[in-house]
Amino acid sequence: MTTEADRLAQQASERLEPAYVLLDRIAGEVLRSRPVRAPLSEANLSGLQRLLADLVADEPLAWGMGFIAAPLIVDGLERYLVWWQRQNTRVARLRLNFDPTSVDVYDYLQMDWFQLPQRGQARVAYGPYVDYSGSDMYTVTAAVPVVADGVFLGVAGADLVVGEIERRLLEVLHGATADAVIINTERRVVAANTPRWIVGSRLPTMPQAGDFREVAELPLGIGWVLALADPAAG
Predict the structure, then answer these.
(1) Full DSSP string of 122-149
(2) Using CA atoms, how far apart are residues 5 and 52, in angstroms rounded to an integer?
(3) I want to staple 96 with a disulfide (CB 3.0 to 4.6 A). Which of 8, 39, 106, 131 is the partner?
(4) Please, where are the H alpha helices in the chain?
């Protein structure tokens, strides 16, 4: 039997699904750009560059998107990233420091949003967090692996606007008949329809039946959980 939590979790997933549709488009463009008998080079990615610029300009859910390559995949480089982001009304390519001898090197190979797809997780939503090492923005990084012939080429990623995520999820939670909250994989509150839970705060444990009236994982495949509870006493 479908519960209220199941129904709301499905609706919440539908609000965020467009981000992963875009990531699949980016991954598909990377795969189409690969030469048949030569290594992938930046010159092959001109179509991807145009696609990214257009997507970032048009999608309010994400302020940055791109392809983050595994070592040696593009032009034999240890680190390679093609990433476009929006700043106010301007869209431009982001340039980061990949010099391993530098104190402010951007070492994405050590970051969870890169490592989880590398280990085979089909969809990742890391955060919300402040990206101090990259953009200094409060964001959720969504990512999917890019794989060809069993070889991990890298990650298609997007930095999502936290305020837009919360707005879309609240549209769903306001339809709940009880206090409702959505929690990420780190037990942090992503959205709630009541001040009972503060966005960004962390629950002591993941919601479970017995502690909450109903609990359902979002079918989006990112490990986020929606929980319904009776109103707090007092």
Answers:
(1) S-EEEEEEE-TTTT--EEEEEEEEEEET
(2) 35
(3) 106
(4) 4-33, 46-58, 112-118, 162-173
Comma-separated ranges of CATH 3.30.450.20 domains in the chain = 17-160
Burial of 149 (0-12, 13-18, 19+ CB in 10 A): exposed
Q: In whole angstroms, what is the distance from residue 20 CA to residue 17 CA?
A: 5
37: enclosing H helix or E strand: none
> Given a cut of 90, is residue 232 above it in pLDDT?
no
- Which pLDDT does position 234 carry in this prediction? 39
pLDDT at position 138? 86
Residue 136 in tokens: 């200094």
Least trusted range by pLDDT, from 21-30, 82-91, 96-105:
96-105
pLDDT in tens, 67-80: 999 999 999 999 99
Q: Which of 180, 193, 159, 194 minimizes the C-alpha distance to 225? A: 180
Residues 6+ apart with CB under 8 A from 9: 216, 217, 218, 219, 226
Q: Is the pLDDT of residue 62 over 90?
A: yes
Q: Per the CATH hierarchy, to which homologous superfamily does domain 17-160 belong?
A: PAS domain (3.30.450.20)
CA distance 6 to 216: 5
Burial class (CB in 10 A: 0-12, 13-18, 19+), 58: exposed
Instruction: Tell me if 41 sits within 8 A of 74, measured CB to CB.
Output: yes
* 180-209 pLDDT per residue, tens: 999 999 999 999 999 999 999 999 999 998
